[in-house]
Each structure stands twice: as C-alpha cells, then as structure tokens.
Amino acid sequence: MNKISRQWSACVLFVLVASPPVFAQGDKVVDDANTTWNAAFNKGDARALGALYDEKVVLSPGNGTTIQGRPDVEKFYKGLFEAGFRDHTIDVVSAKRVGNLIYQTANWTAVAEKDGKKTPYKGVVLKVLTKGTDGKWRTTAQTWNAAPSQ
C-alpha cells in the first residue's frame, strides 16, 4: 500500500470512529423538539410554531414551492390551521447529530377537518435543526410529502 493510500485510510478510519452515533429513537433532544412542535401545531398556534424555526428557514411543503423566512412560515401554518389541520404526530425513522446540527427523517400524520368531515393525511418529513448561540434548537430547513391516508 502506498503512503497516500495509508494516509487516506487513516483519515477515513478517524472520521468513522469520531463520528457521533446515529440517534436512537427516544433521544431527548429530538423527542423534545418534536413534542414541542406537535404541541404548537395541535393548538393551532402559528406564532409558537414559527418561533421553532430559524429566521432564515427554507421550507418546502412538497408542492413544488419554497417558503423562506419565519414570517412566511407562520403565514403558511396559519392557513393550514384555518383549513382545519390538527392532530399532528411525528414518528422518527432516523436522526443524526453532527455538532450543532441535527437531521431527521420521520413519518408524520395529521387530520384535516372541514364541514364535519375528517380527512387523515400522512407522509415523510426531512428536517434539519441547528443549535443557536442561545442554546435553542431551531429548524433551518424542512421538506415533506403528503398523501391522504386510506
């Protein structure tokens, strides 16, 4: 093995050993963030939900558009609440922390109620959270897909 190959192998080994572990379901930081998010959503509180996002967040609700910035995220969620969306759940599939960054993939469900009729929805969400200088974790990027549940 030549010298460059040995050095490269040593670097790869170091990265693998030094990498933080993948979060197991039930990790406190991830669970707390999801519990707080669900509580704000299920209360229909767009302001409280918006506070969980970074000022410069980029969000894509899976419809081919993006929403940028906390004020527009609050406006988006206010529209969902006015349309009757509630009963949101998050079930983490995988989450990983790298320093002050967490990314998670999760399954989600919600129900939209209109004119007394409830329509359940489900999908997959990918969310990136960063820890600010104030110690709070906020979502900096988020995208999801959605489909009516059968």
TrEMBL record:
Signal peptide annotation: 1-24
Keyword tags: Signal
Keyword Iron recorded: no
Taxonomy, superkingdom: Bacteria
Entry keyword annotation includes Cytoplasm: no
Pfam families: DUF4440
DUF4440 domain sequence ranges: 34-138
Gene3D superfamilies named among the record's database cross-references: 3.10.450.50
NCBIfam families for this protein: SgcJ/EcaC family oxidoreductase
Protein name, entry field: SnoaL-like domain protein
